[in-house]
Amino acid sequence: MEELKNITATILLSSAFAFAVSFPIIKLLYKFNITRRMTVDFTTLIEKRNLKVGVPIMGGLIFILTILFFNLFLNPFNENPGLLLVLLVFLISALLGGFDDILNIYGRDRAKPRTLSRILTLIRVHKSTGARIWMILTLPWSAYKSFFYMLGSNPGKGIQAHEKILVQSVAGILLGVGLYFFSSRAIPGLLWIPLLNLNVDIGILIVPFAWLTVLLMSNAVNLADGMDGLAANQLLYSFIGFLFIALFKDDVKIVFLIATVIGALITYLYFNIPPARFQMGDVGSLAMGSLLAAIAFILGEPLMLLIICLPFALVLLSTVIQGVGRRILGRRVFAMAPIHYHFQIAYGWSEEKVVMRFTLFSILCTVIGLLIYTLR
Question: What's the rounded mean pLDDT across residues 316-340?
């Protein structure tokens, strides 16, 4: 009962703090004109899409500042290495997203990368021997850029996909290395496989696994942040799921962390109810996706992400399928990706209906995940 009181108090205090900082943040975003632009006109496909123009982005600063303040200064375990590792991954992703949001407003248009076929042709026919040698030497980098261009959308003004991956890789590798070499767990590479109820020690492979999970989760949440309340609702119930897991494990530092996250998200959702006062932006979505992944690893239950965060996984998968279909098959698989837009365009669902149904799906996945976890 005492623990429940502490969690409730933390959620309420976090929510109140987030509410207090939201107004100066909104004012600053308007002052510096950090608002949504209409770079591509989707109004012929999605009704009322133009109504989002002029809405401030980077609203995720509200919960980022709240989470960092509470856990750096008020968390009783603020010197715990595990907590500090989680917050470091969170902060790196937030800074990456913040730079991307600002560049999307004030940056210059980025050029499309050359295709591999174009580069190979230039290697054969270019008049300059030095240029040919340079293109041969940089061919792996060019292939790397082309691969992520194939999966993503056309480059705008912000940080391109292949550049984001590099920074996200730093965060993911830091998490993996910290888990393996500095974890307090007796077997840092031990994973529990849901449904099969098996424990498997993957050893040092926990490092690349953490790296890949941070990449996937941060980008999945980023892709889900396209409709008012969509990503935030799914995040709220995902964190609630991991709050219960942290309680089962009696991990007080993570319980406090997640309670501050939930409180801040409640305030964010208050302002994000349609029509939204602001949007999360990359600063919020990349940070929260990384935070989810880091918490799952610190708790030793990363595979629970596949169940509790299944809606995010489906959003990411639909985008990859769409990218491969467009670049390789020459046609779209979905009417529009991520998949929540497909339901809007193909089936005529309103944005509110999509958000509500995805939210219900998220609640269901959290309940199923907790049921599987408790029956282990």
Answer: 84
pLDDT at residue 138 is higher than 90: no
**Residue 152 pLDDT class (50, 70, 90 cuts):** low
Mean pLDDT to the nearest integer, 41-51: 56
Q: How many domains does the chain have?
A: 2
Q: Are residues 86 and 69 in the same domain?
A: yes
Q: 78 and 125 share a domain? A: no
Q: Are residues 120 and 263 in the same domain?
A: no
From 270, 303, 336, the end of a domain falls on 303
Q: Say how far apart CA 296 and CA 69 lie, in whole Å.
A: 21
Same domain, 93 and 239: yes
The boundaries of the domain holding residue 122 are 113-153
Decide which of 161 and 293 is more confident: 293
